[in-house]
Amino acid sequence: MGDETEENPLNGVHFVAGTPNAYIQEPGLLRTAGEWIARYGKRIFIVTGTKSWNQAGEALSQSLDEAEVAYEVAPYRGECSYAEVARLQELVGPGVELIVGVGAGKVIDTAKKLSNDMNIPLVTIPTLAAQCAAVTNLSVMYTDEGVYVDFPVFYRNSLLTLVDTELLAAAPVRYLVAGIGDTIAKWYEATASATGKPHNLPTIGGLQAAKLCFDTLIAHSKQAVADAREGKASDALAQVIDAVILFSGIVGGLGEDNCRSAAAHAVHNGLTAIPDTHHAYHGEKVAYGILVQLALENRPTAEIAELLDFYKEIGLPLKLRELGIERELTPQDWDNMAKVALSPDGTMGNMPFAVTEESVIEAIRRVELW
């Protein structure tokens, strides 16, 4: 077996992990979450964050108690890092039947990596509609300081994903907007990643799921954001939540390496090398990365203008200053950002043409002039 196969055993394999075993979305679902979880296991280990548990913990705990599910709660320390996963692994006691991730993307990715490392099935309960982590078979890993490292891909998906639209409607709207940015990227990135590759049926399905995400968000995002501002678990919000969490994950789940992320997420990774951006959300940086990808691809001005109008309508960032960079970047900043964006462990290699550090920097400078 060659080195390349050892590094990525999925290369050349017709592998599909399209969806969780079960995905349920309805208002007030936390109140019956214990019943659903008890169908799969009676002793669970919960990985969560402080804000996430404040949001979901009371209703979930009551539901688990009613279903006679024994649980231990382990707060994570803020980053999905290899060191953090190793720390949590030491806390998982014997007899645990399920790892349960309750929170946003980094919490769930941490639980996901823990689940796969320990060979214990996973349940995901997203507390934000900010990305598709709850249904994807990979974890995006960072250093303990928040700089992107890589994304290991797993051979299985979550056993159960529970999405409470009331919970998500009550969350800060900025997270929803960020989730829309992260999901809009699926269409641009999947089409780039699939270019020049064999289009088997799973790849075609992944591309169609990406287009469905795009069309759904263009049609419903404005209303969904307005409803979320009022805390309403509306039909428009439910449509957007399914696009952001479920169908966004289906894109890569079906298409796998043919429908992976490309320049937009690579630029996100590069931006993590600039400390000024660490308060910007994942989807906000990805949304900016989409603009950089469009510049790299020399997309038509009219197409770019339509997307910029959509960004303005729902509040996605258009400039570096909206991501926290309110100063002139130094040559070292540009170099660090470009190097991480082009990391061989990143996704820039999924672009259908060669991208250099110089071309990434030039594309960012072009976006800043739009």
Automatic annotation (TrEMBL):
Coiled-coil residue spans: none
What keywords tag this UniProt record? Metal-binding, NAD, Oxidoreductase, Zinc
Q: Which residues bind NAD(+)?
A: 105-109, 136, 138, 142
**Alcohol dehydrogenase iron-type/glycerol dehydrogenase GldA domain span:** 20-148
User: One GO molecular-function annotation for this sequence?
Assistant: oxidoreductase activity, acting on CH-OH group of donors
Residues the entry annotates as binding glycerol: 182, 265, 282
Name of this protein? Iron-containing alcohol dehydrogenase family protein
